[in-house]
Amino acid sequence: MGPADPAWWAQRYRTRGDDVGDRVAAGTPVVGVVGADVPVELVEAAGAVPVRLTGDPGPPSAEARHVLGAAVDAPTLTLLTRLLGGSAAGLAGLVVSRDCQSSLAMFYALRELRRLDPWRGLPPVHLLDLLHLPRASTTAYDTAEVLRLADVLTGWTGRAPLGPDAPAGALADALRPARALRERLLLVQQRRRAAEPTVTGSLALHVHGVVSTVPAAEAVELLDALLAADLPALSAGRRVFLTGSVQDHDAHYAALEDAGWHVAGEDHDRGDLALTVQVPAEPTAGALALARQRRGPASPTASVPDRAAWTTAEAARCGAHVVLSLVRAHDEAPGWDVPAQRRALAACGVPLVTLVGQPHRTAPADLLAALAAPAVAA
Amino acid sequence: MTRLASATAATAHQKEWFQQVRARAAAGEPLVLVNADAPQEVLRALDLPYVVNQWWASIVSAKRRADESLDVLRVQGYPDDSRQYDAIALGAMELPADGAPWGGLPRPSVVLAETSGDAQRKVFDLWGEHPDTEFFAFERSSATRVPDRWWELVPHRWEEAFGPARLDLMVAEIEELVQFLAQRTGRVLDRDRLAHVLDLVDEQAGWNRRTRDLVAAARPTPVAVADSIPAVMVPQWHRGTEWGRDAARRLYEEVAGLVDSGVAVCPDERVRLMWIGRGMWFDMDLYRRFQDSHGAVFVWSMYLAIAADGYVRAGGDPVRRLAARFAGFTDQLYTPPWSTDWYVKEARLHGVDGVVHLVADDVPASSFTTRGLEAAGIPVLEVRANNADPRAQDPEALTEAITGFLDTRVRPGSGR
């Protein structure tokens, strides 16, 4: 079994990020990445492998709940569970982007735990505070933040990714495979959205998950193998588009597909929203900052109207028959988007069904019951 | 029990002031609704009438209309378990005009807020859905610096405390706001006027600091938290006016008089308590509930303390000075170790024997505040509640929890 086989991606997805120790043993620094806003090209330009971190599949530990409080989105609690369980060992450092409040809370917690409890052996942790209002002042702030990250990475890896001390073309060399990777991810997206799709939502989710834990050049090779494969067309199922909370596991996708639904798209950043981050042409801090500032509207950082417009447009591009908003408890932002999303989708004749206040893993029966609502059947 | 004349006067002034705001709005002046952590002094310098969102939420809550206000949002499909404190004013706009608190809030022309948390800006987006209201957003940058003893640094060395990047960002946003308001109201910012407003804010903070120091040193405590909160906070909503400064001075003089004449909130004061977190607006009697049973007095709330330590920003360009007041304001209260160190400093200054810590959902890493206080030898009771939503807390359970804390964990006099 290899990367031409969807089953290989499913298997790799379940163990993504587990090879940190092997990479470190082979002499490659690994930088842990939390959240969607870290310019991973900069990390690669600094000579490290960026690995987007994910929490444990099980429930969060009592310690993580105590540190962050119970009223925190489950993926952050399970990620802290994993980090406090020792999985951060070997990381050259940890970059936390403020892509949502729970990421910010975790940064402050990790910074304090590292200061107060040196026995934990936590790696150095850095907050990347990229902001998103569409203003020049925000771009300037974000650019300064990227430059600050470059300095930090230099300290962690001994190799400057930017500026006069950087190896010639370091960032440009990192942007090239990143661009190639994005092109391939867009092809995956096309095949998923096609009239006769050959890529399932689960496979797309697995692809996004795996490529965020390996160097871009390696990801390109893996995707070339997948894209060269002659995958069978899916049987014609009804199409659902997922909005609401970020999905950091594949259980919901699997449950929907098992029931015959095609998960044709989503607007969270562990899925197709990640494709809204352009890979800049210019190898500069400003260009990297702008690419993140202008990325597609994630619920915690976007306005209600921007989010509603994006969800509606993407659902239409996917040919969705229904949009399912799946909102976890303690994930505050998506619930506020729902009424505007519902209105905008209704204007296009697409029903929205909601499951709010959900646990980390919603029962399959609940997912299917929501999609069996009369509005969907009609 | 002493009811502060300052508190009574402040509340009376507030009612009179609010009717003036309503009259100005009725006469066609633009009204601005501003979140507490946005730079409202610009509005003061422009002489634009404004109301602070959190203050209005506290009035709606105190009039026991918060439930109805949140129900309005729930019926429209919005969460009623998120951002209640920010959203009460929005929901209250839909309450029947008949019987609305203080006659009701006129529809604002502009709302100002920062993009704090994940959902605060969403609430203000919804204000902006009304055709007569526009939303101006500020970024909320995060604290990346960890200055020692920030309360000594921020009055004069604010650039060092918050860093140039955060200040540059907010200066640019304030300048954009000034242009935004000029286009919509025709009012042009007089920077000398803004500097004067900021001087008045600093003077007011100076009086609050003297009051805080008096209260910290007095034994027994001369003023109830339930009284000091309105006596401090109502003038805080008038920061940058002569009235606000003079009200802070009158509070100081009144507290000094109480100390001189030996007045005690609880003559049998045995336990000094600190209340960390927002005020329990729907149950202000809570702060007095343990005086008879345990001789336990709440001697501290953040409202006077942050009014004492959190606002002074002296010297420099007025817009940058204003940016320095707001760019990291919430860090002072909520970001560890900024917040943690300050709460420990305040607990020691006031000689408290125990702390009741109201842990709100939107405050990151509150556990470090508890940890810091307990490491300093001060017992802490964590209470998980939403301060503005009476549905989220059972008063009897809260009373029982505090009683148990006093009975089992607090040693009277240990903080002295």
Automatic annotation (TrEMBL), chain A:
<dbReference type="InterPro" id="IPR010327">
    <property type="entry name" value="FldB/FldC_alpha/beta"/>
</dbReference>
<dbReference type="Pfam" id="PF06050">
    <property type="entry name" value="HGD-D"/>
</dbReference>
<protein>
    <submittedName>
        <fullName>Benzoyl-CoA reductase/2-hydroxyglutaryl-CoA dehydratase subunit, BcrC/BadD/HgdB</fullName>
    </submittedName>
</protein>
From TrEMBL, chain B:
<dbReference type="Pfam" id="PF06050">
    <property type="entry name" value="HGD-D"/>
</dbReference>
<protein>
    <submittedName>
        <fullName>2-hydroxyglutaryl-CoA dehydratase, D-component</fullName>
    </submittedName>
</protein>
<dbReference type="InterPro" id="IPR010327">
    <property type="entry name" value="FldB/FldC_alpha/beta"/>
</dbReference>
<comment type="similarity">
    <text>Belongs to the FldB/FldC dehydratase alpha/beta subunit family.</text>
</comment>
<dbReference type="GO" id="GO:0016836">
    <property type="term" value="F:hydro-lyase activity"/>
</dbReference>
